[in-house]
Every structure is written in structure tokens, then in C-alpha cells.
Amino acid sequence: MKRILVYILLFVFQLGFSQEVPKVLKTKFSKEALAQKLQDENGKETSIKDILHQHKGKVLILDFWAGWCRDCLKAFPKAKELEANNPNIDFVFLSLERSKEGFDKSLEKHGMTDKENYWFASGWKNDFNNYVDLNWIPRYIVVDQESDIAKYYAISPEDPEIQSTIDKLTK
User: Fold this and answer.
1) Structurally, how many domains does the chain consist of?
2) Structure confidence by residue, pLDDT tens digits, 86-105
3) Does 97 map to a domain?
4) Are 141 and 149 contacting, i.e. CB atoms less than 8 angstroms apart?
5) Is a pLDDT exceeding 70 seen at residue 2?
6) Domain holding 151: CATH number?
7) Could you give the CA distance from residue 28 to residue 6 in angstroms, rounded to a whole number?
8) Domain extent at residue 143
9) Which pTM does this prediction carry?
10) Collapsing DSSP states into helix, strand and coil, what is residue 118?
11) How far is Cα of residue 20 from the mean position of the Cα atoms in its chain?
12) Which residues lie below 8 Å from residue 54, measured CB to CB, with a gap of 6+?
């Protein structure tokens, strides 16, 4: 009887917390999303708009992750492979750690200190994450050279549409 109850609870949990493809695949960021503030490893505040501006003219991959996220950790080897196979593409890592201390520890523990990392000090629910329909991590967004969204929704670095989008943008 206990086993059946456990299976029912797991099933209900999966229904309530699974990643769903958004109904509208956006191609531009809203003004509110662009204004969203984040912090870098040093605690310096910046905005999504500033980050995109720094990478204007380049193809950019936004990688949402957290050190507590088992799916993110499983995806790391393939994410590193995607990055290694695309040396001319910029990668920015957006952390959803619950605290600055957790952010710092995860960067160190998972060998991310040599990457461009930012942390949502405001938490998961914020203007940017709400705008991009972030309902699970990992999540990947491909941004084109004009800072528009080229690939809105990918949940795995192995999604073939990530690479095909990169290839189209870099022809």
C-alpha cells in the first residue's frame, strides 16, 4: 500500500512541476525583461540589457542553471561540449541559486569560475524569468547578433535546434 501511495505522489509531483513548452515562442525581449537586475561573482549589479549589449554582434547562449539542480548537473558535460564545439559563440550562465553564498560555492564546486556568470539575487520569480516563461532548469536561449531571440526554448544542450540555430546565424 505504501508503495502505491509513493507512486501516486511521484506522479502528482511530476504533473505539477514539469517543464512545459511555452505556448508563444518569443523573438524579442520586453523592456521590463531587459531592465532585470542581476549580480556578477563580485556582487556588482548589472542588467540583462547591459549583458546583451556587451555581446552585441555575437551569437550568445544563455544557460540557466543552479548547483542544486540535478538535471543541470547531468547536462553539464554536454553543455561544456556545446561550448567547446562553438568557440566563436559567447556563453553566459544565469544562476538560480538561492543565496549569494550558494552562488559562490556552486561556481567553485562546478568549475564555473572562468565563465561569465550572473545570479538572480531577486530570486526565480522576476521580470526576466517571468517573461521568458522559465518554469524549469536547465534552460537554454540562443540570442542572435542583434540581441533578438533566435531559439527561445531548449531544455537540453543536446537539442539539435541549438546547433542548427547557431549554424544558421554564423553562415
Assistant:
1) 1
2) 999 999 999 999 999 999 99
3) yes
4) yes
5) no
6) 3.40.30.10
7) 42
8) 23-169
9) 0.87
10) strand
11) 15
12) none
